[in-house]
Design a protein that fits this description.
This protein has 181 residues and is an all-alpha fold. The protein is built from 10 helices and 2 strands, in the order ααααααααααββ. A hairpin with a 2-residue loop joins strand 1 and strand 2. The termini are far apart.
């Protein structure tokens, strides 16, 4: 019998090589062997997202989430798809669910905070954007982009003193496009 793990490995390999049709073929092979495979649906959704086929990616990621309601990578990837599709409210919901599930992956938590902050910024909710960017900068205190983004949010919120302080910190870590840290 064909091993489902071989399909997972092949799917991941072909996806990293940009051979998306072969990656999807192997995801489908995995689903033939294990029709309720959360991993296969997550992989398939990730491949479709890499192809910028976000609506199909959302369908696969939703199937993964229905099979495993605590699938943080499914919620995260679906949030990114929604965000790329301009469906900001759905993206915010899924980013928030990832944080509520208390994912132990600190790298993903950081990405969620940054992405959710950007989503809040896009809809003009600068207060919530500030909350997320402040939490993100605690994790990466040398990140010039985060200080710059904080400065812009403070400015949009009419908090000029804080905006100048954040922008000054951004300049401490970045000079003319070259990261100094």
């Amino acid at each position: 019998m064909y091993d489902v793990h071989i399909s997972y490995s092949r799917a991941a390999y072909f996806a990293t090589k940009g051979r998306f049709s072969k990656a999807l073929f192997n995801c489908n092979e995995a689903l033939k062997i294990q029709p309720r495979s959360v991993r296969a649906y997550v992989y398939s959704g990730a491949v479709k997202a890499a192809q910028k086929n976000y609506s199909l990616a959302v369908l696969d990621l939703t199937k993964a989430i229905k099979l495993d309601p605590a699938c943080t990578i499914g919620f995260y990837n679906r949030a990114v798809c929604y965000h790329n599709m301009g469906q900001i409210k759905q993206a915010l919901r899924d980013y928030s669910i990832v944080l509520l599930l208390n994912d132990a992956n600190t790298s993903r938590t950081h990405k969620v905070l940054v992405n959710r902050g950007l989503a809040y910024y896009e809809i003009g909710d600068y207060n919530n954007a500030l909350v997320d960017f402040k939490l993100a900068v605690k994790d990466r205190p040398q990140d010039a982009f985060l200080y710059y983004t904080l400065g812009v949010c403070y400015d949009k919120n009419h908090q000029q003193k804080e905006a100048l302080e954040a922008l000054a910190k951004a300049m401490q870590h970045k000079v003319y496009g070259v990261n100094t840290s």
